[in-house]
Write a structure and sequence with these properties.
By secondary structure, this protein is mostly helical. The protein folds into 2 domains: about 70 residues, lambda repressor-like DNA-binding domains (434 Repressor (Amino-terminal Domain), Orthogonal Bundle); about 70 residues. It is built from 9 helices and no strands. The chain is elongated and about 60 Å long. The chain starts with 5 loop residues before the first helix and ends in a 13-residue tail after the last helix.
Length: about 160
């Protein structure tokens, strides 16, 4: 369902008609319509071209999350936010990680080359979950509103 609208949303945000999109993507208008209705999931190469043509780099993340269980597992869900909000979110997460002495904890539990059973496994899982939050915040910063980059398209 999600990929039924994301392609149209990014195309519309770029002010491109389906006819022009078909021309720029090298396909038939009917194919663009099929992508936008969810009848066909566009191949990754086509989505990469859409990202350039529309321009909408965030479309790649949305496509990978929607079209692939591996994408959903590996790519965090991104909420677009303002640039100041994204900066504050990232800095907060990094400072919180550091203030909780997580870098030292990570060194301590991994210094012997393995994560030992028991409490180290739980602690390592908690640390990597916090790191996932930092990665998510960094991606949100990259795609935040107000950067002036092609990712700044309003949709």
């Amino acid at each position: 369902m999600e990929y039924r609208t994301m392609y149209a949303r990014h195309r519309n945000a770029a002010g491109i008609t389906q006819e022009k999109a078909a021309e720029l993507l090298g396909c038939a208008v009917r194919t663009v319509q099929a992508y936008e209705s969810g009848e066909i999931i566009p191949p990754d190469q086509t989505v990469a071209l859409m990202c350039d043509v529309y321009p909408a780099p965030m479309l790649a993340l949305e496509h990978l999350r929607a079209a692939s269980s591996m994408g959903r597992a590996l790519i965090p869900e991104i909420t677009r936010m303002s640039l100041p909000q994204a900066v504050c979110n990232l800095i907060y997460r990094i400072q919180d990680f550091t203030m909780k002495h997580r870098p030292e904890d990570l060194i301590r539990i991994s210094s012997n080359g393995r994560i030992d059973e028991g409490s180290e496994v739980e602690e390592f899982a908690a640390i990597t979950e916090e790191l996932d939050g930092i990665v998510q915040a960094a991606i949100q910063l990259r795609y935040s509103k107000g950067t002036g980059l092609p990712t700044d398209t309003v949709y």
